Amino acid sequence: MTTPPVASVEGLLEGAEHEQVVFGHDRDTGLRAIIAIHSTALGPALGGTRFKAYPDLGAAVQDVLRLARAMTYKNAAAGLDFGGGKAVIVGDPAAVRSEELIRSYARHVHRLGGAYLTAEDVGTTQADMDLIRQETRYVTGTSPELGGSGDPSEATAVGLFAAMKAVAAHLWSTDDIGGRSVTISGVGKVGSHLAALLAGAGARVAVADVNAEAARRTAEMTGAETVDPDAALSRRCDIVSPCALGGVLDAESIPKLQCRAVVGAANNQLADDSCAPALAERGILYAPDFLVNAGGVINISEEVGGYDRERALARVAGIGATLTQVLQRAASEGTTPLQAAIDRAEERLGAARVRAAGR
Ligand code: NAD
After folding, report:
1. 293 three-state secondary structure
2. Do the domain assignments include residue 352?
3. Is position 74 annotated as part of the catalytic site?
4. The pTM is what?
5. Total domains, the chain
6. Quick one: 136 and 174 in the same domain?
7. 174/212 same-domain check
8. Ligand 1 site, residue 189, Cβ cutoff 6 A
9. What number does the ligand 1 atom closest to the CA of 244 have?
10. pLDDT at 105 over 70
């Protein structure tokens, strides 16, 4: 264990609402990891391990605190009995990954005694989760042979598809997505599955990717049209689906949108929360990212007590009903869907805290 350098103290203070922040250090393997548990009010903290190079340790601390907090809201809004947590392994995975480093990290997770359950995230793989499983049972998303649910991307796409149907019902009074035009920006693991689901339902799908080969492959598989990645978000269509990077909706991009709704997988699509009212003012329905991309975490939450794929995907599809409630609440309270989703999560968290205080 090591204490953070002065550069990260500010980040720690800013995250004073976090229940526990653990620094894991192992001289032999070069491991530098931070595990942040934001809240266990609803249950053990569940969230992935990001493996990434950061400019300095302070940046890593800030990232893990922000990500752990977001998981609290994602899990609460999804109706899961899990709290929020996240971990980062600091360093370029291509340069520093080793079996011993991952195992050493897993032992840090184990020492938390189940307060934090880890999972795959950017920079980590299912193979890493399988390796972690050899050191601790506090891991999800391992391969099916080890009792896990495997790659969460298909489940995430199933959740997005259900959310798009709910949006269609809200905007056009029918959840039939057939004939609707949808532009997907980023057709990696999630976007390509989503394109297939939409094409199967008769939607008119356009796909864009900076990796031209990924776009071509998805287009070939689904019959989608390929479009220029630089112009994808501002394309005239019914629904735009950001499935690549966060921060794509900002003061510059929002005025250029020509869609009725945004429903995508990417985390933190809004550059900041003021973008939600800006989208509403333009008459664009923004489906909160943390609500509609929760399919992956709902899927792994189903591993507890024995994973059944059919049951898990049915629960994931419930994102549609959850989003409908959030959209109705936003309409009746005159607020944005983002605010309504945050309020919904905070009510669950508040009730859990009251229950805990009464025990
Ligand atoms: P991925 O890396 O498999 O796919 C991302 C794709 O976006 C890649 O094909 C990449 O070439 C493309 N891309 C990158 N920059 C782009 C740009 N500027 N314009 C167009 N395309 C671009 O990732 P994924 O697993 O499909 O996840 C997509 C997003 O959804 C990520 O932001 C991820 O954090 C988020 N997410 C994923 C899951 C999941 O289950 N995989 C769950 C929740 C959220």
Report:
1. coil
2. no
3. no
4. 0.91
5. 2
6. no
7. yes
8. yes
9. 7
10. yes
Pocket lining: 136 vs ligand 1, CB cutoff 6 Å: no
By most ligand atoms within 8 Å of CB, the mutation choice from 185, 187, 190, 313 for ligand 1 is 190
Domain range spanning residue 165?
Answer: 153-347
Place of tokens 């392994």: 89
> Which domain CATH number covers 65?
3.40.50.10860
Residues with Cβ within 8 Å of 14's Cβ and at least 6 positions away in sequence, in order, are 62, 65
> Which is the closest atom of ligand 1 to the Cα of 157?
40
Six-digit token pair at 11? 């980040």
Given pLDDT bands bounded at 50, 70 and 90, which one contains residue 22?
very high
- My answer on whether 48 and 99 are in the same domain is yes
For residue 184, what are the β-bridge partners? 207, 241
Instruction: Report the residue count for the chain.
Output: 359
Taking a C-beta distance cutoff of 8 angstroms, is the pair 239, 180 a contact? yes
Q: Measure the CA–CA gap between 20 and 86, rounded to whole angstroms.
A: 11
Let me know if residue 356 belongs to a domain: no
Using alpha carbons, list the distances in angstroms from residue 237 to 16, 281, 311.
Answer: 43, 18, 33
Q: How far is 21 from 3, CA to CA, in rounded Å? A: 11
DSSP assignment, residue 50? E
**Annotated catalytic residue: which of 74, 86, 165, 256?**
86
CATH number of the structural domain spanning residue 157: 3.40.50.720
- At position 62, the amino acid (one-letter code) is Q
Tell me the average pLDDT across 4-33: 77
| Averaged pLDDT for residues 162-179 | 97
Best of 63, 156, 248, 298 for a ligand 1 pocket test (most atoms within 8 Å of beta carbon):
156
274 lines ligand 1 (CB under 6 A): no
